[in-house]
């Protein structure tokens, strides 16, 4: 077990946005979080990253309650790529990625060779090496997103949390990013909308509806015609792809 949510409740005003959510994310695996707009995916990810505190229930990291960790310790091990991440406009790509190393540095230690190696590897893995000296404000939306992923990788996290990371990416970079995330050794939790991507790349899925988990399991267990109709209100035909051994969902026209 790496991250565990234990009966989480989070409210805004009188509205219960996260309503008794419990699950465990398996160490080193990619857990996809699905659900219609407004079902609570972003709110759940923010609770898991420690950016919000639950009104009840607990988030556990390796068996210890998240709220008992120092902020710096959380920053050393949990990386969160937010949906609408912003960054100071005066920085270069390399500077943004270097920010990922900060939680690991002390007041006394200078920039080390290990920091350089980690930053270079993160730029390489996200295809941003050639743009390392470009100004942040000159990047396209997709390049900004890839730079945020590079910063998260430079953080060398144990847990990686991603909120719709393929937004803004062209199809090549969507596939590259999903391949990368699914091949990483850390525990990853990713909200996403594309059900075929979820089927292809995630080890397990959670489906949220109105703040509750309404299905959980492998893509084969979760992505049924019935669920797609009940939760997403779409008619779909689901089959094992002849091109890869994962499910493929055909939506009715
Ligand atoms: N700060 C806030 N103020 C008011 N309402 C909020 C706030 N944060 C979340 N909500 C409400 O909580 C519900 C869940 O929002 P959330 O962003 O978690 O959903 P989501 O599943 O990530 O949606 P989407 O797929 O559209 O990104 C929505 O109805 C939203 O309006």
Automatic annotation (TrEMBL):
Pfam families given in the database record: ABC_tran (PF00005)
Protein name: Histidinol phosphatase
GO MF annotation terms: ATP binding; ATP hydrolysis activity
Gene3D superfamilies: P-loop containing nucleotide triphosphate hydrolases (3.40.50.300)
Annotated PROSITE patterns: ABC_TRANSPORTER_2 (PS50893)
SMART domains: AAA
Keyword entries, A-Z: ATP-binding, Nucleotide-binding, Transport
Keyword check for GTP-binding: no
Taxonomic lineage of the native organism: Bacteria, Pseudomonadati, Pseudomonadota, Gammaproteobacteria, Oceanospirillales
Protein family according to the UniProt entry: Belongs to the ABC transporter superfamily.
ABC transporter domain span: 3-235
InterPro entries the UniProt entry points to: AAA+_ATPase (IPR003593), ABC_transporter-like_ATP-bd (IPR003439), P-loop_NTPase (IPR027417)
